[in-house]
Specification:
By secondary structure, the protein is of the alpha+beta class. The protein has three helices and four strands; from the N terminus they run αββαββα. The chain has helices spanning about 10-15, 35-55, 80-95; strands at about 20-25, 25-35, 60, 65-70. A four-stranded antiparallel β-sheet has the order 1-2-4-3. Strand 3 and strand 4 form a beta hairpin. Helix 2 packs antiparallel against helix 3. The N and C termini lie far apart (about 35 Å).
């Protein structure tokens, strides 16, 4: 089944289910602040494993104690798709209770 870009309404509906996530410049984004650099680094490793499982990869940035993701689907011209929200949901499962920004 081919991947299709989501409509603005579909994006808004899915964002309502993922607090802390937003769409900026046609990319689904989120930042997490963790307790230490080690914790942030560990989260990056877990996200990388999920991305390989899904065969869908984000831009992933590690700061001192922060992790930021930014993703869209290149195969549909850089639009936001269900693949991006699938990755976001999996990342949220890795980081329950972690605050945004």
């Amino acid at each position: 089944m081919p991947v299709e870009p989501l409509s603005q309404k579909e994006i808004e509906d899915r964002l309502a289910e993922l607090p802390g996530w937003s769409v900026e410049d046609d990319r689904l984004t989120r930042s997490y602040r963790l307790g230490s650099h080690f914790a942030a680094t560990a989260m990056v490793i877990h996200i990388a494993q999920v991305q390989d499982e899904l065969d869908h990869h984000s831009d992933l940035t590690l700061g001192y104690n922060t992790v930021s993701l930014s993703v869209n689907t290149h195969s549909v011209g850089g639009a936001v798709t269900e693949l991006d929200f699938g990755l976001a949901r999996r990342v949220e499962d890795l980081a329950p209770g972690h605050g945004a920004h």
